Amino acid sequence: MSTRRRSVVLLGAIASCGAWTPVQESWSCGASVRRRPSFRLSIASSPDEQIAPQQDERRRSLRYEKELRDAYRRCGEITKIFSKTFYFGTTFFSEAKKTAVWAIYVWCRRTDDIVDSPLATMLGAERMAEDLEKWEARLDKIWQGEPTDSLDLALADAKRRYPELNIVPYKDMIKGMLMDTPGHEFYQSRYNTWEDLEVYCYRVAGTVGLMTLPVLGTSNGYTLEEAREPALALGIAFQITNILRDVGEDALRGRIYLPLDDLHKFGVSEQQIFDGIVDQNYVNLLNYEIERAKHYYEKARTGIPMLAPEARLAVASSLRVYKAILDKIVENEYDNFRKRAYVSKIDKFLMLPAAYLDILAESDRPAGESRHEHY
Known about the structure:
Elements: H1 47-82, H2 84-90, H3 95-115, H4 118-123, H5 125-143, H6 150-161, H7 168-178, H8 194-216, H9 224-245, H10 247-252, H11 260-265, H12 270-275, H13 280-301, H14 309-331, H15 345-364
Helix pairs in contact: 1-2, 1-3, 1-6, 2-14, 3-6, 3-7, 3-8, 5-7, 7-8, 8-9, 9-13, 9-14, 13-14, 14-15
Pfam family, one: SQS_PSY
Keywords: Carotenoid biosynthesis, Signal, Transferase
EC number: 2.5.1.32
């Protein structure tokens, strides 16, 4: 999701339930929340008076449960509309995990929309920064169990069901959005070194792995802390892939995400990027960045056996699909200025058996063994 397509990609307005409006109003498809009230039963003077409050609370509780079901249903619809591939991956999960992941996805999507939508562009950078500040305050309320609308309610309930969900990666993602907000102190249109870009990749994509890990869970013998690094690596690998795929699109916006140190190392100028010139220097640069991405994919792959069994196929298949985009860039003769690298639906489907074999291979590998040395 980002101006150059971060981990959740803005595809257009949600026709069925309305588009995003400024953050204080929320998405128009997110109705206001009727919170579950707490009642103190007093000693009534008659049996009827004693029964009435109980019936009242029962009705309110049923209404709350219906709103919660509707909130999760809307989250699922939004996820399916904006990312059919991601939605398909969640079909391998239990109902509890699936709905929680949908809620997380929708929060990320809405966060991205604050800085990467036609309305955001029209309102300007100062308004973006203000809305992100208000959005962070809403996030705090979600963690306090005080959701603002029904989509927030879904995430608040997911937090209740999965207490190990940590607010830090959510706040870090907001910082990542600010790195794409012109005029803000965090804003960067260039990254001098890989270490600089890695911070950005963590904030806008690596955070997603940390958000979802407590929901996906770990297998026996592994802890969330042990699975943390592979989860981070997967998000960073996805983001490097996004950047490599979208070099031409970003150049049209006046942005270069590739580290300037790497451009200088291979004799590629910023002007060459803006002119869309593919020569041997540029090919060498892309091969270098592709190898970096592959290093992170391999690091992420080692975390597959650490995940709960029901989560492994979804993660393994998404890893294979996204990694295949790198091969498509090569097939396109490294022309990511004029040719879009993507994986077809049929190719995605055909990758499922290979993803299953990946799971078996990783499960048989001794703990700590890696295919590659550090990049």
